[in-house]
Amino acid sequence: MIVVKVGGAVTAVAELGEFDDAVVVHGGGPQITAAMAAAGLSATFVRGRRVTDEAALAVVREALLEVNRELCELIGPRALGLAGDEIGLQATRVPELGHVGTPIPTRPQAVLDALAAGRVPVIAPLAVGPLNVNADEAASALAVGLGAERIIFLSDVPGVILPRISANDADELLGELEGGIVPKLQAAVHAARLGVRAEIGITEVTA
Q: What pLDDT sits at residue 90?
């Protein structure tokens, strides 16, 4: 099994419909920010996480479900859209950020059923609560919980231009990085240390 995390701005996903045993987790940052602005809500971030009050949560959820629908259309008829909060994705709430959680390894039966039926599950990053969760962290938690062999992070965010980096070296590098690569590298390190082969673009992250 392979878990593929795609950013909300990534559109080259049609080939994912040809994969066997692939689980897709998507982001939606740009779409959420635009939807919040249209609703007259300001976006506040703390260490890369979006502060999400009750009003923002409704906007976040609808924006993510719209991204989910669009991705399923791009991937094709095998795609099956799923909302993480509806399939049992678990997370530990982070009260200071509002309706936000840190995903924990989860093995949703709906994902297993979809794979068994030859479908490609496409998962919106929401956790039971509902809680808004970082999509990179959600992908990593699902990869570990499902026992995936590999996780790949596809993104238009500039990454670490190295063929390979160890988890320990990545930890040191994280102190020097900022922006969208940070949660991706953290999630890749987490997955690698728990036995899942992790890649961000051309860079393999090893335990």
A: 98
Backbone angles phi, psi at 134, to 5 degrees: -65, 130
DSSP 151: E
Q: Please, is 127 exposed, middle or buried when counting C-beta atoms within 10 Å of its C-beta (0-12, 13-18, 19+)?
A: buried
Q: What is the mean pLDDT of residues 48-64?
A: 92
The CA distance from 190 to 171, in Å, is 10
pLDDT recorded at residue 163: 65
pLDDT for 128: 98
Please report, as a single letter, which amino acid is at residue 54: E
Q: Return the structure tokens found at 75.
A: 């991937």
Please report the DSSP string for 117-136 in residue order.
Answer: TT-EEEEESEETTTEEE-HH
pLDDT digits (tens, 9 = 90+) for 126-182: 999 999 999 999 999 999 999 999 999 887 655 555 667 888 888 777 776 766 777
Structural domains in the chain, CATH included, are: 2-206 (3.40.1160.10)
Contacts of residue 202, Cβ cutoff 8 Å, sequence gap at least 6: 159, 161, 163
For residue 144, give the amino acid letter: V
Q: Which residues of 153-184 are buried (b: 16+ CB within 10 A; e: fewer)?
A: bbbebebbeeeebebeebeebeeebeebbbbb
Report the distance separating Cα 106 and Cα 112, nearest Å. 11
Residue 72 clears pLDDT 60, i.e. is over it? yes
